[in-house]
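LAB NOTEBOOK - FOLDING QUEUE
OPERATOR: T.R.
BATCH SIZE: 2
PURPOSE: Compare the predicted structure-token outputs for two unrelated chains run back to back under identical settings.
PRIORITY: normal
REVIEWER: second-year student, initials M.K.

ITEM 1
FIELD SEQUENCE / FIELD STRUCTURE:
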Amino acid sequence: MAELNGLADDRALLGRTSTAERVSDILRSRIAEGFFPPGTRLSEDSIGGALGVSRNTLREAFRLLTHERLLVHELNRGVFVRIPTVEDVEDIYRTRSLVECAVVRGLGKPPYAVDGLARAVADGQRATVEKDWKALGTSNIRFHRELVALAGSARTDELMRRVFAELRLAFHLVDDPRRLHEPYLARNGQILKAFQDGDRDEAEQLLATYLADSRRRVGEVYGRRVAEKKLG
């Protein structure tokens, strides 16, 4: 399988001190990138062989990712990449609004360190020109991770890294990523400009409106997609 060939390339990342945490980092990234789409059964033998890790190490990594709601263990069937529910998506957006808006509200006086935000917007613009809608979605997530990073809190970064990974599971099930992501590129640019202008209040208001609109949009599109899969 192509995804396993790619996974084997990640073996070098483990080094000599391979741990379940490092394996889970690799698998989390691969799941977020869509190499293992929602609903995929994960083979212990294939993945363990590709990464060169023991069954026990891999099972511990699976357990960690199950705790993060990225995987689910089904009795007598195995471990699968989780398919989020519509309620999951709603809760993810509630969490995003609480955390991201609080980050912006808690910033001190300008100037703000927005180079990471600017790079994410530039990457999104380039992806749009190249019509690479998957890359556009990636740049959008990176924009919001960079925004959260403005808080300078490793704990907040870790929390939101997991939230964004779970959100991407939902994105992978949407069959029109352009319509899902393209409208928000310009809005990322508006938030960036507010930061560059030193207007924290404007940035927060733009962000709050953005997240509320995105919550409605993604919830509607994802709900329809889940219903179609159940009918199918």
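ITEM 2
FIELD SEQUENCE / FIELD STRUCTURE:
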Amino acid sequence: MSSERERTYHHGDLRRVILDAALDVIATNGPGALSLRDLARRAGVSHAAPAHHFKDRAGLLTAVAAEGYALFADALTAAPDLRERGVAYVRFAATHPAHFQVMFQPDLHRTDDPDLLAARARATEALRAGVADLPPAGRGEDDRLAGLAAWSLAHGFATLLLSGNLTDAVEGRDPEAVFRSLTGLIFTPEGRAGD
């Protein structure tokens, strides 16, 4: 077998290589720049190889979203309280910008994929558990609205941070510390975790 053929067909964990290349493309140029042909070229494999693992572009983006939600759920679950889950949310967005971009754009992936649904359910449960842990006075009369407020704050802050819109507001401070301060503007002192 020629070395070209070995390079093409004996790649090791090709699925991971393609996912990593896709994450690089998305982080640099956004999901719109993603092409299975380009990923195959980057991985040094035939243009059909990515399709073998992901079928098509939507399949690849579904795998990115499912992996993102699984990592996200792990990060949220590891946080001890709602405030720190918000910090974990912001940290996840900053350290996994490609995953974050794809996860929250359902038009990019297959929203009925079982792996994606399971990972997203774990992440949702971790967020809900953080709200449920607040004392009643800290979450108001409606747990769902308290959850929406917490999610809006974390997601909005993370999105603004990733898009560079918080540079002046953060003024060189640690974004995680700024986010912790913001939580005090939404939740009452009795309900703030960690106080």
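REVIEWER COMMENT (ITEM 2): The longest helix spans residues 57-78.
FOLLOW-UP: none requested
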